[in-house]
Design a protein that fits this description.
Layout (H helix, E strand, L loop, with lengths): L1 H12 L25 E3 L4 E3 L34 H4 L4 E11 L8 E11 L4 E6 L11 E6 L22 E4 L2 E8 L1 H9 L14 H12 L11 H8 L3 E9 L8 E9 L4 E7 L13 E4 L18 E6 L7 E5 L21 E4 L2 E8 L1 H10 L31 H9 L10 H7 L8 E8 L4 H4 L2 E7 L4 E6 L10 E7 L25 E4 L2 E8 L1 H9 L9 H14 L1 H8 L1
Antiparallel strand pairs: 1-2, 3-4, 3-8, 4-5, 5-6, 7-8, 9-10, 9-16, 10-11, 11-12, 13-14, 15-16, 17-18, 17-22, 18-19, 19-20, 21-22
């Protein structure tokens, strides 16, 4: 006994080197011996958070789980951004199925239900949708709404992450076992980037009742044979695609007919045709919005068929009497049906002549979309428009009605130019230039007498005011004692027209250059002779000599120079 104790003491006293296998102390080589705190504050309330915290030095405690609670992606996937930014709107899609037991039913004991599982990478949420099956009697659609789903017990403290998804794995979602059979191309490439090997797709098994229903549906024959025309495909491919042609219709052979320009629309979605007429301005025709309503256009129009001749289906009498008690079926071959040939897109080309219910239309041109359509589908490269020469028509001149005497002539003419008469526009620039400015009145005053042989009117004198701002004339008569005529305003201010030589002549108003000393004018059937003018009028005429030739000194000298040169000898004798 003493020897054994001595040996043990001697072994403890011996110092063994710190080499692997020579020491069993777990703290050998460690440098961190901190202890994680187990309490924290949540909304100012102290709570215990030590369930997920490790022990001393970061070492897991005994019985503590080390499973990840959320998806962790490698650094090369998604960059340095958080998952809710890097993987926004990125979803992994898996095809799956689950088996459901059927009780108390002889035809089936279990049922296979196919569904699609979506895993959202941004927040590790899961959604399950079931594909709709015809006549299943089961409310299908969204089986599990989008949310995070915990794993089955005993791991119900953790949630499903991206590492739990792969083809061939089973997921228990709310007590239902889903078998993943396949995934889409994006999911397969994403899992390969994470370093996961994705196995080939698995085959979804079928349940006996679904197989039995499929065999019955395949062997079932409809009581009424029908002809299925796949028009939905054409509608989806060519919806809102319209071919546009510009047409010419020569209707000059008929009474009061002329050439018309039309626009043909061919709808590729259902092979229908629509015609619109381009009505030119002032053509005398009503602008009808649609010339031909949208419908299929037959190549050879026929008379109206009798009831029962042209039908969509053909009825065959199998046996029995006609009427009540007989047996009938529908003929899928349409024996004896009336076939009507309609225009197709291949019949419409530039230069072709089509018959639109007896009216022959020439296709002259088309738009760019139509040219690209025929170039792509039929390989046509030449699209030369057809030029149609229109018969030359002489332009019609508008004839204005004669003046009726009401109001001014311009005001009455406005009712002929517009449906809603507009007042005549004034020359505003001339009005601002020739309006009164200080002592410069811009009004010419002239003295006139009547050009008459009546003794009572020969001694009457008149003052004519010509307003340069708007070319209007006002006449006043100064009162004379013992004349028997009351003086005052003789003519209201307004524009006065010159007398016309013919009735069809245009109306011309008196201008400032028509008024000079010695000239004779006629104002509203009264003839006047201008005998004098005030100093302002004479100076204005001399200042604007280019407008008033009677006040132009150069013209006057030129006129006087001619007779003087021809009679130079007599002039010299007179002044010698």
């Amino acid at each position: 006994l003493h020897v054994r104790v001595r040996v043990i003491v001697s072994l403890k006293a011996m110092s063994l080197p710190l080499l692997p296998g020579n020491s069993f102390n777990p703290n050998v080589g460690k440098t961190r011996f901190h202890k994680s705190h187990a309490f924290d504050y949540n909304r100012d309330v102290p709570v215990f958070v030590g369930e997920e915290k490790p022990g001393i030095g970061g070492r897991p405690l005994q019985g503590q789980s080390t499973q990840k609670n959320c998806s962790v992606y490698p650094k090369g996937v998604g960059g340095d951004k958080p998952a809710w930014v890097a993987f926004d709107r990125q979803v992994l899609r898996f095809h799956a199925y689950f088996q459901e037991a059927v009780h108390e039913k002889r035809e089936e004991q279990y049922r296979i239900r196919r569904c699609t599982v979506y895993f959202y990478l941004e927040d590790d949420t899961i959604q399950v949708n079931e594909s709709r099956v015809e006549n299943s009697g089961i409310p299908q659609g969204t089986l599990i709404r989008r949310h995070r789903i915990p794993k089955p017990p005993p791991n119900d403290s953790s949630y499903y992450i991206v590492d739990d998804f792969n083809v061939g794995q089973q997921l228990v979602l709310h007590r239902r076992t889903f078998q993943l059979t396949d995934c889409d191309e994006f999911t397969r490439n994403f899992l390969r980037k994470l370093g996961v090997r994705v196995p080939p797709p698995l085959e979804t098994p079928g349940d006996p009742y679904s197989v039995h229903r499929g065999e019955l549906s395949a062997a079932m024959q409809p009581l009424r044979p029908y002809e299925k025309q796949d028009t939905l495909r054409q509608f989806l491919d060519f919806d809102r695609q319209v071919l546009r042609f510009y047409c010419h219709w020569d209707d000059t052979d008929s009474m009061f007919g002329d050439c018309r320009q039309l626009e043909l629309h061919y709808f590729l979605a259902d092979d229908t045709v629509e015609l619109l007429e381009k009505v030119p301005l002032n053509s005398g025709r009503d602008a009808v919005p649609v010339f031909l309503r949208r419908a299929r256009l037959p190549k050879e129009p026929k008379s109206l068929h009798q009831p029962g001749v042209a039908t969509k289906r053909t009825v065959l009498n199998v046996f029995g009497p006609t009427g009540h008690g007989g047996r009938f079926i529908l003929d899928s071959l349409k024996t004896g049906a009336v076939q009507t040939e309609h225009y197709h897109e291949s019949d419409l080309t530039i230069g072709a002549v089509i018959s639109v219910w007896g009216r022959r239309l020439l296709l002259c041109d088309c738009d760019e979309f139509t040219k690209e359509f025929y170039r792509t589908k039929y390989g046509i490269e030449k699209f030369e428009p057809v030029l149609v020469q229109q018969p030359a028509t002489a332009p019609t001149q508008r004839e204005m009605p004669p003046y009726n005497g009401f109001g001014s002539e311009e005001d009455s003419l406005a009712s002929c130019l517009n449906l809603i008469p507009k007042p005549p526009r004034r020359d505003f620039a001339k009005f601002m230039e020739k309006d009164r400015r200080g002592l410069d009145s811009n009004v010419l005053r002239l003295v006139a007498r009547m050009d008459t042989t009546r003794p009572i009117d020969m001694d009457r004198r008149f003052i004519i005011f010509y307003h340069l701002s708007d070319d209007t004339i006002t006449i006043f008569e100064p009162p004379q004692r013992n004349s028997g005529i009351i003086g005052g305003k003789f003519l209201e201010r307004g524009q006065i027209a010159k007398p016309k030589v013919r009735e069809e002549d245009a109306t011309v108003y008196y201008q400032a250059e028509d008024l000079c000393v010695g000239s004779r004018i006629q104002l509203n059937r009264h003839k006047f002779v201008l005998i004098d003018a005030d100093e302002y009028a004479l100076r204005y005429m001399e200042k604007h000599a280019e407008q008033f030739p009677h006040a132009n000194i150069d013209l006057i000298l030129a006129k006087l120079k001619g007779p003087a040169v021809s009679h130079i000898s007599e002039v010299q004798r007179l002044f010698s």
